[in-house]
C-alpha cells in the first residue's frame, strides 16, 4: 500500500478500484445504453407482467412526448406520487428525457403532508396513483399545480393480480379505497402513453442538471429539498457497479421492495439495476406474500433492503419451506444490521449480506462493507471509491480525531449534493470547509472500518453527560423477549433531559420495567440506564422501517 492510499485500501474486494472514470454520463444514458445492448431482455416485472427494455424505451419516448405537450420542458419539476410500479419508472425517465427534474413523493401522504413540498418545488404537472388523485387535487389551491395525470396500476393486470394492489392508505383509508375512478379533470395515464414519441431533436439533459429532487426532514421536521444532479446519481451507480463486480451485465434480477421516493430505492434498486440491464421486480408494497410470490417466479440475485425485511423473508421462507438459495448479494441500510440475521441469511441463501451507509444528500451510499468474506458485521464498512472522509471532533470540526475515538463523520465525493433547495442557511450549516457533515458520530478501526455510535442531534445530555441512544438500545435488545426498542431524551418538569426507553415486547412475554433497568445496569454505567421504561405496542417508523426517535420522544413526552 502506497503512502497515498487510505487505510482501508486493502479491505476492498478483488477488482474494486480506488478511483473511477465518471465521464459525462447522465441518468438517461444509463437506460439508453441498456436498451442498445439488451432490447429484448425483460426490464420490469410487476406481479408477473413483464416489460422489455425495448418496450420501456418506447413508453418513455411516448410519455415524454405527452408531458411535453402539457408544457413540461428543461428545468421544470414534475411530481410523481405513486408506489413502485412500471408507470413510475416510465415517468421517471420520461421527465429526465425532457431535461426536467423528477420529484418523488410518498403516495400515502395526506394533502397536509404533501403541501409544504409542493409549495416549495412548484410542479405544474403531477403523475399520481388514481386512488390518491383527490388528495393531490387539494393542492391546486395555493400551489402551482395545473395538470394531474391519473395512473391505474391494475389496467394491464389480470383480475386476480389486481387484488394484490389493495395498498394500505395512511389516513382516511376506508373512504379512499372506495374510489374506482380518478377525480373529474384528471388526465388518464394512457393519454400520455398513446402520445406521439418526443422529437429526437429535443434538448437532452446535461450532467449538471438536477435529475431528482427528494425531501428530507431530518430531525427538525421541516422538509428540505435535496437536489441530486445527474452526475451525483451516476457517480453512485458506477461506484455500486464497482463495489459488486460479480454483478453481470444483462444477467441479473433485482428485487425492488424499497420505495422510489427514497434515495436508496431509486439509486441502489432501480438505477443500478437499469445500468446493468437487470430485470427489476417491482413491488408496490413490501408485503411478504408479494415478495414470496416474486421469489417463486424466480429467485432474485440482488436484494437491497432493510433489516426487518431480510428478517421477514428468511422467516417466511423457513415457514413455507421455500428455498431462497441463489440470492447472491444483499446490501442493507437505514438501520443497524444484527450479526445473527447476517448468519441466518447467508446460511439460507448461500450469498452475502452486508451493511452499507448513506444519506439522501449523498445519493445515497458513501460507505459499505466489502462484498467478500472480509465483510465485518456490526460495522458499516469502508468508504466507496473516490469518497474522502474525516472524523472530526464535534466541538472543533478542524480537529481530526484518532482511530478509535468518536468523531462526526464528514465526507467529500462525487455523489455528494451541492446544497438544499432555496435554503442557504441550512446549506451553510450542512458543510464545513467543503466537507458535508453527516451528523453521525462514528469510530474508525486502524484498518479503516467505520462503526456508527449515534446521531449528533439525537444525543441525550443528562446531568452533563452525553448518552448515545444506540448504545442503550443495544444493551436492552440483548434481553430475551425484547422485540424492538427506541431510547430517547424526554424533559421532566424541571427541564432536565431524562433517558427513557420505549420497548416493544414479543407476544406473550411478561416483563416489568425494573427487569429491563436491572438488565441494562449490567452493561451500562448508571447515568445511561433509562430512568423510565415504557412498554408500547409499536414504534413510529418511516416508510423504510427506520424508527423515528423524534416522534417516539413526542409521544412519551405527552404520555
How would you describe this protein?
With 559 residues, this protein is of the alpha/beta class. It has 3 domains: 25-235 and 248-270, Rossmann fold (3-Layer(aba) Sandwich), CATH 3.40.50; 306-456, Rossmann fold, CATH 3.40.50; 459-557, 2-Layer Sandwich (GMP Synthetase, Chain A, domain 3), CATH 3.30.300.30. It has a 7-stranded mixed sheet, with helices on both faces. Strands 17, 18, 19, 20, 21 and 22 form a 6-stranded antiparallel sheet that branches. A 5-stranded mixed sheet has the order 12-13-14-15-16, with helices on both faces. Helix 9 (230-243) packs across helix 10. It is globular. 47% of the residues are buried. Residues 169-182 have low confidence and may be disordered.
Amino acid at each position: 500500500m502506497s503512502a497515498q492510499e487510505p487505510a482501508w485500501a486493502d479491505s476492498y474486494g478483488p477488482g474494486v478500484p480506488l478511483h473511477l472514470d465518471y465521464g459525462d454520463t447522465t441518468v438517461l444514458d444509463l437506460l439508453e445504453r441498456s436498451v442498445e445492448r439488451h432490447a429484448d431482455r425483460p426490464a420490469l416485472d410487476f406481479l408477473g407482467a413483464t416489460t422489455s427494455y425495448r418496450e420501456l424505451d418506447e413508453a418513455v419516448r411516448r410519455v415524454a412526448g405527452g408531458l411535453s405537450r402539457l408544457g413540461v420542458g428543461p428545468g421544470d419539476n414534475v411530481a410523481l406520487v405513486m408506489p413502485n410500479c412500471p408507470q413510475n419508472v416510465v415517468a421517471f425517465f420520461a421527465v429526465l428525457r425532457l431535461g426536467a427534474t423528477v420529484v418523488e413523493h410518498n403516495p400515502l401522504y395526506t394533502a397536509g403532508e404533501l403541501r409544504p413540498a409542493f409549495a416549495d418545488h412548484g410542479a405544474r404537472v403531477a403523475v399520481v396513483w388514481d386512488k390518491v388523485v383527490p388528495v393531490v387535487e387539494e393542492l391546486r389551491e395555493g400551489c402551482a399545480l395545473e395538470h394531474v395525470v391519473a395512473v391505474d396500476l391494475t389496467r394491464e393486470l389480470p383480475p386476480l393480480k389486481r387484488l394484490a394492489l389493495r395498498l394500505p392508505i395512511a389516513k382516511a383509508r376506508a373512504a379512499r379505497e372506495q374510489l374506482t375512478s380518478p377525480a373529474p379533470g384528471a388526465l388518464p395515464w394512457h393519454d400520455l402513453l398513446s402520445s406521439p414519441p418526443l422529437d429526437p431533436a429535443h434538448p437532452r439533459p446535461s450532467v449538471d442538471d438536477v435529475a431528482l429532487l427528494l425531501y428530507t426532514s431530518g430531525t427538525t421536521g421541516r422538509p428540505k429539498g435535496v437536489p441530486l444532479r445527474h452526475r451525483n446519481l451516476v457517480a453512485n451507480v458506477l461506484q455500486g457497479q464497482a463495489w459488486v463486480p460479480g454483478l453481470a451485465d444483462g444477467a441479473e434480477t433485482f428485487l425492488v421492495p424499497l420505495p422510489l421516493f427514497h434515495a436508496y430505492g431509486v439509486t441502489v434498486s432501480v438505477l443500478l439495476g437499469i445500468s446493468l440491464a437487470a430485470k427489476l421486480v417491482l413491488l408496490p408494497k413490501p408485503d411478504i406474500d408479494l415478495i414470496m410470490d416474486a421469489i417463486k417466479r424466480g429467485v432474485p440475485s440482488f436484494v437491497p433492503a432493510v433489516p426487518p425485511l431480510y428478517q421477514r423473508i428468511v422467516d417466511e421462507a423457513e415457514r413455507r419451506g421455500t428455498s431462497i438459495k441463489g440470492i447472491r448479494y444483499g446490501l442493507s441500510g437505514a438501520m443497524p444490521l444484527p450479526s445473527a440475521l447476517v448468519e441466518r441469511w447467508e446460511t439460507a441463501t448461500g450469498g452475502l449480506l452486508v451493511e452499507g451507509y448513506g444519506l439522501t444528500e449523498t445519493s445515497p451510499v458513501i460507505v459499505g462493507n466489502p462484498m467478500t468474506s472480509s465483510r465485518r458485521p456490526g460495522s458499516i464498512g469502508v468508504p466507496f471509491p473516490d469518497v474522502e472522509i474525516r472524523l472530526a471532533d464535534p466541538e472543533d470540526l478542524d480537529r481530526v480525531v484518532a482511530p478509535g475515538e468518536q468523531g462526526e463523520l464528514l465526507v467529500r465525493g462525487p455523489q455528494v449534493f451541492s446544497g438544499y433547495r432555496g435554503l442557504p442557511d441550512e446549506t451553510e450549516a450542512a458543510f464545513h470547509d467543503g466537507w458535508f457533515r453527516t451528523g453521525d458520530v462514528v469510530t474508525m478501526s486502524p484498518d479503516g472500518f467505520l462503526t456508527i455510535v449515534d446521531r449528533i442531534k439525537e444525543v441525550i445530555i443528562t446531568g452533563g453527560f452525553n448518552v448515545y441512544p444506540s448504545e442503550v438500545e443495544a444493551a436492552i435488545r440483548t434481553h430475551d423477549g425484547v422485540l424492538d426498542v427506541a431510547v430517547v431524551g424526554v424533559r421532566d418538569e424541571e427541564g432536565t433531559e431524562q433517558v427513557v426507553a420505549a420497548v416493544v415486547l414479543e407476544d406473550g412475554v411478561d416483563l416489568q420495567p425494573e427487569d429491563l433497568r436491572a438488565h441494562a445496569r449490567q452493561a451500562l454505567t448508571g447515568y445511561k440506564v433509562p430512568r423510565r421504561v415504557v412498554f408500547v405496542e409499536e414504534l413510529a417508523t418511516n416508510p423504510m422501517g427506520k424508527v423515528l426517535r423524534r416522534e417516539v420522544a413526542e409521544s412519551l413526552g405527552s404520555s
